[in-house]
Amino acid sequence: MNSEGKKPSAETTGRARGEEWWQTSIIEMMPGVIRLRGYEIQDLIGRVSFPAMIWLMLRGELPTDEQADLLGIALGAAVDHGPQAPSIAIARMAATCGVGINSAMASALNVLGDVHGGAGEQALAFYGDIAAAMDEGAALTDAVTARLDRFFAEEQGYVPGFGHRFHPVDPRAPRLLEVTRDFAARGVVAGRFAAIAEAIEAEIARRKGKRIPLNIDGATAVIYGELGFPPPLTRGLFVLSRSVGILAHAWEQTGQGGRNKGPLPREWLWAYTGRPKRKLPDDADG
After folding, report:
1. Which residues contact 16 (CB under 8 A, 6 or more apart)?
2. Is residue 164 in a domain?
3. 169 vs 22: CA distance, rounded Å
4. How far is CA 213 from CA 10, 78, 197, in A?
5. What are the pLDDT digits (tens) for 115-147?
6. Left, alpha or beta for 24 (phi > 0: left; psi -120 to 50: alpha)?
7. 43/56 same-domain check
8. How far is it, in rounded angstroms, from Cα 133 to Cα 137?
9. pLDDT (tens digit, 9 = 90+) per residue, 239-251?
10. Are 29 and 35 in contact (CB under 8 A)?
11. 114, 260, 241: which is closest to 176 by C-alpha?
12. Pair (123, 5) in one structural domain
């Protein structure tokens, strides 16, 4: 019954159910009105940067100008890594298959998973385990040692966020750490995750007898951690970042033309490792 003692109509009940089905705190929209997290879109346009819009949409509140600046720096650092990156290569190949920009981009984005694109999320989760141990009273070096002990005993492989198959030192990582330290000195962030990453790098070097430096995934994870983003969003932010390079390469390839571009030049073929040439049984009997 409503306030007037009348039973709600089926239409009213159905509409309420439909509204509840797609409930969201992100956007309010009706004819002539668009509000994002409560802000009128016309008030945001021209006054709020794209990184700040990303923050608002994900976090529900506007960042400070310096927080938005640091987020934009991290996003800008990882936009591209060349056609040898699977996602970029796929975008370029797809563009030669007669599909549109959106399909080329979608094809590329679909390979950004645990192996290619997911290391930032894994790195931030790794840092988070160390931060949690520190919250419980462990010293930084002890927390790092304990987490690495567990990693090499149980998980092995590559410590997420460290080492690069192409760069002896990833040129993006030192600069991102430098920027993070600068923002920490100004009180924008605490600098805690930067300290954790540097301590991990030092301990890995001590154990292996050689430096395995921080890479772009580990460095952007530092910034996303400093800004308070949870690990799963780190992967989504990387996807946003790399989408810029994917778009640029898909568009460039579209302009270059070509059809059905494969992974190798047409004069190069793959190594065949199967059976040698043979005849069908009936042919062999004849």
Report:
1. 8
2. yes
3. 47
4. 64, 17, 10
5. 888 889 999 999 999 999 999 999 999 999 999
6. beta
7. no
8. 7
9. 999 999 999 999 9
10. yes
11. 241
12. no
